[in-house]
Amino acid sequence: MATLNTKFKLNTGAEIPAVGFGTWQDKDAQEDAVTEALKAGYTHIDTARIYGTEPACGAAIKKSGIPRSKIFITTKLWNHHHHPSDVEPALDASLADLGTDYVDLYLMHWPVAFARGSTPFPKDSAGKMINGDTDYVDTWKAMEAVYKKGKARAIGISNFSRKETERLLRETEVVPAANQIEVHPYLQQREACEWFRAKGIHVQQYSP
Prior knowledge:
By secondary structure, the protein is of the alpha/beta class.
């Protein structure tokens, strides 16, 4: 069984703590929550742009006094910033809120683009979501660029199927370091997990 001290090696050579502290929902409580998590021994903090918790995570990490090199930070690119020109500015905004000049792992949150703009969930007059026309392969290529600049020590994907990942492997250069997908006792996805691992892609598991 994994503990707070268990680590796995990514395909970049970096080590990722097996157990991460998630910060989805209740953003006003997250600074105190992350502070207590760090005190309890968590070293992996998982956030995302869409959660709205990056500022709280950054504040808690700064307050902790723990060296940045001792904390593994994961954050994620949201769907309305999939256009290649938007990827680096989106990451820069996340870095500013987190108070760091790099993240350990930067994930594409979903393999689907929303319409570009400042609205995270763009809708038409009928209340239906407005999708964008950016191909996730092009988004990934922009993520490869920020990886090569060192702003993300590793890049990965989230909620990607095997078929979607196979296309990335065919058409891009950098193999995703991780895929964060829903895995728990009631949705084990054993075959998918085995396939990702065989390709050198670490499976990060989340549950509802």
